[in-house]
Amino acid sequence: MKLLLNLVRKDFKRNRVITTALAVFLILSAIFMAGGLRVTGIMLSSLNGLNKMAVPPEYVQMHKGDYDEQAVADFVAQQDYLEDALVVRMLDVNNAQIICNGESLEKCLMDKGLVTQNENFDYLLDQNNQIAIVKDGEIGVPVYYAEDLNINVGDTIVLQNGAYQKKFKVATIIRDSTMNSSLSYSKRFLISTNDLNEVALHMGEWEYCFEFLLKEGVSTTVLENAYLAAGLPSNGVAVTAAIFNMINAFSYGLVALVILVISLLLITMSVLCLSYIIRATLAEENHAIGEMKAIGIPAKDIIKLYQIKYTIMVVGAGMIGYLAAIPFGDFFSATVIRYCGDGSSQWMQWITPLVGIVLLSLFVIYRCHRIIQKHLKRTVMELIRGEENTKQEGHYRLPAKALKAYNLSMALGELKCKWKENVVIFLIFVFSSFLILLPMNMNNTINNPVFLTYMGIGKSDVRIDIQYSNNLEQQKEEAIAYLENDPDIERYTVYQNGYVQSQNVEGEWEYVRVQNGDNGVFPLEYLEGKAPTEKNDLALSYLNAVDLGKKVGDAITIIYQGKEHVYNVCGIYQDITYGGKTAKAAIDFDRKDIEGYMIYLDLREGIDIDNHVTKMRTVLPNSKITPCDAFVFQTLSSVIANMNQVQGVAAVISLMLTILITVMFLQLMMAREHSAIALKKAIGFSTRDIQIQLGIRLLVIQVLAIIAGTLLANTLGEVIFAGMLATVGVTKIKLLIAPLWAYLLCPAVQLGVVVMTVIIGTNTVGSYHIRDQIME
Amino acid sequence: MIKIEGISKSFKDTNVLNDISFGIEKGDFTAVMGPSGSGKSTLLYSVSGMDKISAGQVIFEGINISALSEEELASFRLTKMGFVFQNAQMLKNLTIYDNIILPGLVAKKELPEKIRKLASELMRRMAISGIENRDIKEVSGGQLQRASICRAMINNPEILFLDEPTGALNSEATDQVLEILEELNNEGMTIMIVTHDPRVAAKAKRVLYIRDGQIAASKELRKGGDSVLELDNWLKGLQFNNSQTS
Ligand SMILES: Nc1ncnc2c1ncn2[C@@H]1O[C@H](COP(=O)(O)OP(=O)(O)O)[C@@H](O)[C@H]1O
Ligand SMILES: [Mg+2]
Fold it and tell me: Once rounded to an integer, what is the mean pLDDT over residues A214-231?
């Protein structure tokens, strides 16, 4: 053992740079692997913990306006698959009427409701994951606002409507198992029952949430259909547990997924490096291997001898990676912990990365074993047959005419002859540019307004929602009257929403939310087909198409007002609004059947959207007016913040690896070609010439690799990204690329890094003793 | 043409060359002999500027080459010096012919057509025509060594440096190389050669015997007069034992 350690130490001394580079690769792979799994572990534990304590409802139907309390109670009593039910009273307050630390929350686009603590389930929790309790005069603020507006316990929130004013002291920060995420459209503030009753006298509008827990194994569809069939209050959206889960997976899981994808990339790169290095170092050991064979050491032991170094490195890297993943993983888990708490199964954050590291180590060790085994077999055969290991590389020809840029010609020529040696570095460069571009493109896509269209929202400057109100028509007329006379409006379109019924694959009749209006003005991105143009065209959201088992071109029968109508499925689009289940068709809804109006509008060039929205809000105080860009930014803010960090880390890591790999390959190249380099110097090439030649070779490889990496990021990257987004119902996505960054700045930085590394890394060529090399 | 003035060379703490001075005139044919490890090669590399010397100076046609920059030295080697090494060194990604013309094309002293013509002529003279397009592994050691001489000659250098060029050759190949060297020298080429083979040294006009980093003895050889035997005896007198050097 001591002998082996000695051998390893000596080997390390001899190949310091290469060993270090390899170690860094392995350690980074381990860190990302363990880190990604740690984030995953923490996330699962957090979400489980929160759900266990808060017990979120499995089906929620929102409703604005009065309702028949007896009918609801009867319904609950009749449905024997219900575990429990709850009616939550929520007082919706206009954002402008909430003043926090002296500033109104007008700019916040999410709805805000005041509630009291629930009984039996759907609890609002405090920062210790205990059921939050607020006394009179106190308020519990959702984490999202605590984070976004930097509200702390002890701050003051004032509700104000005209002369009425009510002061609250922030007593706790609330975790809400259903509305935590920034992707959720509204947020709940917790106050005491006395306060709620008092405030309700002066401001706000009541909204009711009918919440249900189902018995084990019962599908929400059963409840959904029974509910709608019973004609119970439904003046608002219905949300299922599946949607809560999707939103959570997207909010907290995306980062973990990205980190894991990066770790897979790093592992691939490490294994490539490893195989290259093992082959390169073993090639120098042919003689020693031959001798060992000659004195009768069994092949197994020889493999072990060479394996030991890599095993030690892998195990060491695994341990370092596991430890380093603790702060690394915690950094990227800060959001989920803040929003959901530490959770109930904290062992997961220790065990999942451990399992990952063990598997990773075993995999790498196995790869090493195979590579050494293969090499040994070949070497022994060659030794027996007395063959030389040096294979012919082929020639390049000097030009018939003058050799103008001789360094360029020679570098290209040598590259042509030695391309096999360069496959590995090429692949590693491909992956490292992929590594920079993938998170960057994903981030850019999420940040791009066009991303909205993938989520089912037409691309427009501003959206006006007129919903859940008793005088929809009047509000709509007001809005149109205003829009017609506002010279700053470029164009607008009004859509109506209503429900029809259609049969799903199991033959059950389901309610389908249909939007009616000119779908050509603010178009969506269609997966297949096109927007409805004909009278009996109908477009389905992807999830609805799956649910109803329809393809483009199929006929679909719908029931509206008790009559059957046959429509033609003309297109399928992606949507995440309303649980991803929507449709678009020219259905002539009766006024009384209209659930709400939605107006999309574009402002004229040069009009400031934010300012204009503020102006519109004063004119149309009862409608919800949303600037779309800001909306995406607010809904995706937590995801974007994390993605920015991941993008930064990935870029730094990738550049670091580029430097490392360049240094490492330069070393290997110079070692392998030392006699050729010495000869070139002897016949009159300067150190600079040789540096330039090595540099050109690396840069040509890198340029090709960057091109390949960019293509890969656009194609494979799109597939990976779509796979991630599939959890929220987005199946197809086009990566939106910022050309300046992706095609110019990034490659430039990567090339620059390599140029600098080559200049520094090849400086040793100057100190090469020509004769030493030549004499060998 | 070259003045070597009190040069010393040490690696870390071992002194390999110790205050050596001599001169090389145009048309000289100097052979350097001595026991293995005595510093013969070191002397050759120091004189040609490939090794930095620790003390003293080498004046090449009035230029102190120890003071030249790396870049200037490289162009010096390219245009004014030719080198031949023991194990004929050639770039393996080029054919024999391209290896020979490469320094010519890089130096651009002549037009490419002239360089190509010169290369063909040199190859014919060295009796290696016909191997132009071969790989360096596809020719014999003697052929390869003669090709290296062609390459060394391609830029019409002022001086040819050879470090044991026949060390790895059989006697027939050695003879061929020697013949060429003699012929080149007769045409006026200045030559400095390191060897431990008296048969090779016998072709020179002067033999320097190095021991312990110094010129222990030197001997002028008469043109066509001194035989190998005579040189052998001189060397024996210096307690040189051929068998030591293998
Ligand atoms: N790069 C070097 N570093 C240290 N010692 C060296 C180096 N090169 C040569 N030497 C030493 O210098 C001495 C002379 O070497 P060399 O000139 O090659 O001898 P010769 O050519 O006469 O056989 C030897 O003892 C050798 O070990
Ligand atoms: Mg020598």
Answer: 87
Which two structure tokens, joined as six digits, stand for A754? 């390599």
Structure tokens at A300: 């197994």
Nearest to A244 by CA among A710, A740, A579, A659: A579
How many domains does chain B divide into? 1
Instruction: Report every protein residue that has its C-beta within 5 angstroms of ion ligand 2.
Output: B 41
Q: Residue with structure tokens 């496959």?
A: A423
- Cβ-based neighbour number of residue B156 at 10 Å: 14
Q: Where are the domains of chain A?
A: 1-56+235-391, 82-214, 407-452+629-776, 470-621
Tokens at A418, concatenated: 């030695």
Ligand 1 nearest atom to the CA of residue B34, by list position: 22
Q: Which of A137, A123, A125 is nearest to A191 (CA)?
A: A137
Q: Quick check: A638 pLDDT over 80? A: no
Provide the 10 A C-beta neighbour count for residue A532: 25
Please, how many CA atoms are within 13 Å of residue B184, restricted to the half-sphere of its CB? 29
Report the Cα B83 to chain-centroid distance in Å. Answer: 6
Q: Which pLDDT value is given to residue A772?
A: 61
Give the closest residue to A438 by CA, choosing from A653, A726, A225, A631: A653
Q: What is the CATH number of the domain that holds B65?
A: 3.40.50.300
CA distance B176 to B161: 18
pLDDT at position A729 is 61
Of B83, B90, B102, nearest to A398 by CB-CB distance is B102
Contact status of A393 with chain B (Cβ, < 8 Å): yes
Concatenate the DSSP letters of all residues of A620-673 into one string.
STTSEEEEHHHHHHHHTHHHHHHHHHHHHHHHHHHHHHHHHHHHHHHHHHHHHT
Sheet order of strands, B159-163 included: B81-84, B159-163, B190-194, B29-33, B206-211, B214-220
Q: With a 6 A CB cut-off, is A772 part of the ligand 1 pocket?
A: yes
pLDDT at A121: 94
Q: What confidence tens digit (pLDDT) does each residue in A384-443 have?
A: 665 554 556 788 998 878 788 899 999 999 999 988 888 988 999 999 999 899 889 988
To which residue do tokens 């055969």 refer? A381
Query: By a Cβ cutoff of 8 Å, what residues of chain B touch chain A?
Result: 41-42, 45, 50-51, 70-71, 74-79, 83, 85-87, 89-95, 98, 101-103, 105-108, 111-112, 135, 137, 151
Residues B31, B208: contact at Cβ < 8 Å?
yes
List, in order, residues 6 or more apart from A715 with CB less than 8 Å away.
none
Which of A387, A422, A669, A683 to probe the B interface (max B CBs under 10 A)?
A683
CA-based torsion, A199, A201, A204, A207: positive or negative: positive
A398 contacts B93? CB cut-off 8 A = no
State residue A381's pLDDT score. 67
Q: Which two tokens stand for residue A406?
A: 């001789």
ipTM, two decimals, is 0.91
**Residues B3-61: tens digit of each pLDDT:** 999 999 998 888 899 999 999 999 999 999 999 889 999 999 999 888 889 999 999 99
3-state secondary structure of A735: coil
A151 in Cβ contact with A112 (< 8 Å): no
Q: Which residues share a beta bridge with A599?
A: A464, A494
What is the rounded distance in angstroms from the CA atom of residue A65 to the CA atom of residue A62? 10
Amino acid (1-letter code) at residue A79: Q
φ and ψ of A461, to 5 deg = -80, -45
Give the domain range for residue B75: 2-241
Nearest to A632 by CA among A463, A449, A465: A449
- Distance (Å, rounded) from C-alpha A448 to C-alpha A437? 16
Quote the CA–CA distance of A478 and B43 in Å, as a whole number. Answer: 101
Q: For ligand 1, atom 4, name the residue with the nearest CA.
A: B11
Q: Is the CB of B36 under 6 A from ligand 1?
A: yes
The whole-angstrom separation of Cα B53 and Cα A275 is: 42
